[in-house]
Amino acid sequence: MKVITTLPELRNARTALPEPVGFVPTMGYLHAGHISLINAAKAGCTSVVASIFVNPTQFGPNEDLAEYPRDLPRDLSVLEAAGVDLVWTPTPECMYPPGFQTWVEVQGLTNGLEGKIRPGHFRGVTTIVAKLFNAVRPDRAYFGQKDAQQAVVIRRMTRDLDFPIEIVVCPTTREPDGLAMSSRNSYLIPGERNVATVIFRALTEAKNAYESGQREADILRRIMRDVVNAEPLVRLQYVSCADYDTLEELNTVNTKALLSMAVYVGKTRLIDNFVIG
Amino acid sequence: MKVITTLPELRNARTALPEPVGFVPTMGYLHAGHISLINAAKAGCTSVVASIFVNPTQFGPNEDLAEYPRDLPRDLSVLEAAGVDLVWTPTPECMYPPGFQTWVEVQGLTNGLEGKIRPGHFRGVTTIVAKLFNAVRPDRAYFGQKDAQQAVVIRRMTRDLDFPIEIVVCPTTREPDGLAMSSRNSYLIPGERNVATVIFRALTEAKNAYESGQREADILRRIMRDVVNAEPLVRLQYVSCADYDTLEELNTVNTKALLSMAVYVGKTRLIDNFVIG
Questions:
Q1: Domain containing A228 — which CATH number?
Q2: From the CA of A209, how many Å to the nearest CA of chain B?
Q3: Which residues of B touch A23 (CB under 8 A)?
Q4: Closest B-chain CA to A96
Q5: Which pLDDT score is estimated for B213?
Q6: Which of these, A194, A200, A256, A258, lies nearest to A228 by C-alpha position?
Q7: What's the number of domains chain B is made of?
Q8: Same domain for A160 and A211?
């Protein structure tokens, strides 16, 4: 496995990779969710490239950029064991040199949900993903359904800007008790870790109601809200029942829909979602 | 010469082109300036791709999108005679399908000059050029110095987004009397065509003053303004003496600088520039 930190080296190493090339962009501190993306890339592609870069431009001024967990040696051994061919670990100075001033922005789809709570977040995401796409030039790129809005936004960007890249969205990987895998789970202290399952329980209750015939989005949102609010250590930030393609809030669920929420467990912000319909 | 109108056909045809591939994006109605770009691409690359697309998103609501001159049959025969291998002529519906909502924007560099007069213009330019780059995947792309700010902005976008593409800027091609070649020159009626040379004369006077030792940017700007204002059929929109790299207005010229201006000759808006220093 090659570990590469400069763009000219990356361009050289990329040329030598047998195609098709699969790409898994990450912010490191890898968990089973990332590995499932690597495995999907290995199953579908001849070569697999992963990147590790904690992208500063997708963090807001009051967010957890400085504390974001990092462990490069462990990440590299995990990627090597998973059979990755090439790891791209650029520095922030390489990605955002002095004078950097170009941004890629998806409108519309970024107005609600995470985009509303985290202004500028998706501009940072789409800009860095465009840069990574141009640096790595994959044939396919793999993202997790856990970041549902991100997946929709990146698919839109890829199509709108004519990147010749197939976006593959893989199912959310969960702990045995249902908690979605996330690097941010490492922030949770033991008491918080136990109550964090309320997210999965709330989504499950709403999904069960849908499967029992409930089509009123307000009622599905209320079910999730009530389950979360019954847990005193957890603070709900938003719940949503939105159209899966447009991400607009629904009145009635008669198409594919996204149940999603963001909560604070102590000081840790967690998101999760289910797709229904 | 292949003429291609759909993206899947373009991707196929591109794969078959021997590399390096040179690319000349145009809005059609080709003149000797475009041909000089094609010739530079042919001299430097094994294959040459040109595109013809009058990009609606770089025109403001009160600009000349509808009247912009078009003559595809003539353009195609000109490109064939120039030895172009492949012409990409997408439709507006192909480039901006329903739901399109992604924009590429360069900040800073687009604040002054054309960017100030034409809000949104460069956002349209950088978005379409990013799309064309992803569609055509050239090794080198050729732009004219005539659109000086565009060249600086595209070079910045290419670097910032890590496009593996070399940007080549070619000298402005001029009529024998000095008027810069432009598709918009076709708007000029005979009396206007004669007085349009005032732009070249104003730039030349300022350049001569610089070469005689004048370093005060205010004086160089005043020289250009005075020459243009002496021509009653011409209305000056702006004159500029700016840093060549940052495009910020200068007080004193002690580095590479851009003398530029925009004028109206009748209803026709024309721009031109000289590089000094």
A1: 3.30.1300.10
A2: 32
A3: none
A4: B160
A5: 98
A6: A200
A7: 2
A8: no
A24 and A102 housed in the same domain: yes
Q: What is the dihedral of CA B75, B80, B86, B89, to 10 degrees?
A: 20
pLDDT at site B159? 98
Instruction: Give the tokens for residue B25.
Output: 């994006």
Residue B178 falls inside a structural domain: no
CA dihedral A127, A129, A132, A138 (to 10 degrees): -140
**B264-267 contact pairs (CB < 8 A, 24+):** B264/B234, B264/B235, B264/B237, B265/B188, B265/B192, B265/B195, B265/B196, B265/B233, B265/B234, B266/B187, B266/B188, B266/B189, B266/B192, B266/B233, B267/B187
- Among A107, A141, A170, identify where a domain stops: A170
Q: Say if B102 is an interface residue toward chain A (CB within 8 Å).
A: yes
Residues of B in contact with A155 (CB under 8 A): none
- Indicate which residues of A carry an active-site annotation: 34
- pLDDT at residue number B164: 98
- Confidence label for B37 from pLDDT (cuts 50, 70 and 90): very high
- In tens, the pLDDT along B150-206 reads 999 999 999 999 999 999 999 999 999 999 999 999 999 999 999 999 999 999 999
Give the mean pLDDT of A193-220.
98
Give dist(CA A50, CA A142) in Å, integer: 10
Domain span including residue B265: 183-272
B101 with A106: Cβ contact below 8 A: yes
| Position A170, amino acid | C
Q: Do A105 and B109 touch (CB under 8 A)?
A: no
* Claim to verify: residue B111 and residue B235 sit in the same structural domain: no
What's the mean pLDDT in A193-209?
Answer: 98
Mean pLDDT of A249-268: 97
Chain A with chain B: Cβ pairs closer than 8 A: 75
pLDDT at A26: 98
